[in-house]
Specification:
Oligomer: single chain
Number of domains: 3
CATH architecture of the largest domain: Alpha-Beta Barrel
Strand order of the largest sheet: 11-16-15-14-12-13
Helix content: 25-40%
CATH superfamily of the largest domain: Glycoside hydrolase, family 3, N-terminal domain
CATH class of the largest domain: Alpha Beta
CATH topology of the largest domain: TIM Barrel
Radius of gyration: 26 Å
Strand content: 5-15%
Number of strands: 16
Length: 634
């Protein structure tokens, strides 16, 4: 026990030294003397229970605009915790009215009236939905990417939110991992620049501005390197990969003043990330001077038991807090055990104080102590959500994200001489898939479909025919439920072939539905599902002018599609204005300039495959291979 406490105190001494305002100010814009003084003054007034309360985040489970439902024990406990200062942050309470009522419970009933931070996954838009981050990264346009995050922040803060769990800055090389759709691809330098742009869009220059919100760099660290691309799986990487590929975006955002960092579900080289003192204390807080706070992912402190690292929830709480994890998201480990750990002497109170300082610091930066209800203005909410201006920006970012992979027959742009267009494929008339996964509060089925976009572009001047062609999954897409793809008997082929024969140009959509990618959506087979490829082959037999529009949240392994198509657009999932943006490219209103940020494998057996692969010693290069890194792959 004494030896363990000595290690805690030594680690804490280093952290306290480095977070001192005089030292950190030069490194991190979050450190200011005035705020630090206010934090210390408040900390001195707090009881141990109140300190522990600030380190808990809970999810909303009832309509807080009404009375706490009788008989709902979970809701009753949450309400009582709010009233006595037992919660530092809430997530999944959304809306100006709802956040006002929850904030009122905390501020007007607790002894010290410490306000709540309201968090939500605002990943690529809030109400107005932008391209998935992998798609946005293909624009290589940092200003456009920043504007996307800025619009999301304006809308989210108008709905009472002050904190987003974005950007995801994991560098991804394995498209089998479903969450590649949330990242910026496989390059650490580009990923770093995009992370900084998105952070700037969310946080702006001043967090007290009601149009800005706390951003989160996640998942620290190595989550995208999960073995075999299987979500939540173990990660084992060497120091070269760790420092040169995985860590750069985290280091850059930490030093630039990001408000929070979320650790990851996985273990890294044998240690769960939220129990890793090297990652959280030595690297993030000490070496990089991070001034914000670290939050666990949903329930992940409890999952240290599953890892075999902690014997029970109490030990998991000990491992997390002593390793530098400041706030507990929904594990209830700190709520149930942290006070006991301090009172027994197992955890030094100074470790708790340091975590609380970090949380309070951000609440002062947000201006919540001056006006805890500043983000809960229903008039502002009505005025700023889903505006024409925001949709115009979404359309602009979407068209910048489109990648033209092939145009061998110069079918694009479609000219005025074209009078008959066949639009084929389930995804062409799908108003939900363009929203992608993690679509904030975007309403299901609210996107402009490709069919609608084409009709908007041509009006009555061109005949537009549609056939579904193939079937896709009709499951609800909840991430912890398996997707099922019904057998396709090809009965839709006849109508598709019929209209294709008569058309001057065919627009054929293939790809993935929105919820085939994202969290819990790792796949062993990332080729086209069902009979999409069969339909492609039938259509190209009857019409030479086939434009394939590939909508997906990850690289798709389908070499026949890439080789046999003559015109091919990779459009990802483009958000609210998807159909209009694609039509802008199809009809020449915008010249597509996107470039892929993640390599497309020819076969699943190649994975991981990425552009900056190191050259190997063998096989020896043949004629024409000199100077190419790719010869060593084959």
């Amino acid at each position: 026990m004494k030896k363990r406490l000595m290690h805690q105190v030594m680690a804490l001494a280093m952290v306290c030294l480095l977070v001192a305002p005089s030292i950190l100010r030069a490194q991190n814009p979050l450190i200011e003397d005035e705020i630090e003084a206010k934090v210390e003054a408040l900390l001195q007034k707090m009881t141990l229970e109140e300190k522990v309360g600030q380190l808990n985040q809970h999810s909303g489970s009832w309509d807080v605009t009404g009375p706490v439902p009788a008989g709902n024990e979970y809701a009753q406990r949450r309400a009582e915790l709010l009233k006595k200062g037992g919660v530092g942050s809430m997530l999944n309470i959304v809306g100006a009215e709802a956040t006002y009522e929850a904030q009122k419970l905390a501020v007007e009933n607790s002894r010290l009236g410490i306000p709540l931070i309201f968090g939500y996954d605002v990943v690529h838009g809030f109400k107005t939905i932008f391209p998935i981050p992998l798609g946005e990264s293909a624009s290589w346009d940092l200003k456009a990417i920043e504007s996307s995050a800025r619009v999301a922040a304006i809308e989210a803060t108008a709905s009472g939110l002050t904190w987003t769990f974005a950007p995801m800055v994991d560098v991804g090389r394995d498209p089998r991992w479903g969450r590649v759709m949330e990242g910026a691809g496989e390059d650490p330098y580009l990923g770093t620049q995009i992370a900084l742009a998105r952070m700037k869009g969310f946080q702006g220059d001043d967090l007290t501005d009601e149009n800005t919100m706390m951003a989160t760099a996640k998942h620290f660290a190595g989550y995208a390197f999960s073995e075999s691309g299987r979500d939540y799986n173990t990660v084992d990487v060497g120091t070269t990969t760790l420092y040169n590929i995985i860590l750069p975006p985290f280091e850059a955002t930490a030093k630039a003043g990001i408000a929070s960092v979320m650790n990851s579900f996985n273990d890294l080289n044998g240690i769960p990330a939220n129990g890793d003192s090297f990652l959280q204390r030595e690297l993030l807080k000490e070496a990089w001077g991070f001034g914000g706070f670290i939050i666990s992912d949903w329930g992940s402190i409890r999952q240290m038991i599953n890892h075999g690292y902690s014997k029970d929830l109490k030990q998991a709480a000990y491992h997390a807090i002593t390793s530098g994890n400041d706030m507990d998201m929904e594990s209830q480990a700190y709520q149930n055990h942290l006070k006991e750990l301090v009172e027994s002497g197992e955890v030094d109170i100074r470790i708790v104080d340091e975590a609380v300082r970090r949380v309070l610091r951000m609440k002062f930066h947000l201006g919540l102590f001056d006006d805890p209800y500043k983000y809960s203005d229903t008039d502002r909410e009505k005025a700023l959500l889903y505006t024409d201006e925001h949709r115009a920006i979404a359309r602009d970012v979407a068209k910048r994200s489109i990648v033209l992979l092939k145009n061998d027959r110069s079918v694009l742009p479609i000219g005025d001489d074209v009078k008959n267009i066949a639009v084929i494929g389930h995804l062409a008339n799908d108003k939900d898939t363009p929203l992608g996964n993690w679509r904030g509060r975007g309403e299901s089925g609210s996107a402009v479909s490709l069919l609608e976009g084409i009709q908007n572009a041509v009006g009555s001047k061109v005949k537009v025919s549609y056939a579904e062609g193939y079937t896709m999954s009709t499951d609800d897409g909840v991430f912890n439920r398996a997707l099922h793809f019904p057998e396709d008997d090809g009965s839709g082929f006849a109508e598709a072939i019929k209209i294709a024969k008569k058309a001057d140009v065919v627009i054929l959509t293939v790809g993935e539905k929105a919820l085939q990618t994202g969290e819990g959506r790792s796949k062993v087979d990332i080729s086209l599902t069902g009979r999409q490829l069969d339909l492609f082959n039938e259509i190209r037999k009857v019409n030479d002018n086939v434009v394939v529009v590939l909508m997906a949240g990850r690289p798709i392994v389908e070499p026949e599609l890439y080789e046999q198509s003559t015109t091919l657009l990779n459009t990802f999932h483009l958000g609210t204005e998807a159909g209009n943006a694609i039509a802008d490219v199809l009809f020449g209103k915008y010249n597509p300039s996107g470039k892929l940020t993640m390599s497309i494998p020819r076969a699943i057996g190649q994975i991981p495959v990425y552009y900056n692969h190191k050259s190997a010693g063998r096989p020896s290069p043949g004629p024409g291979d000199e100077g190419s890194v790719f010869w060593s792959h084959f």
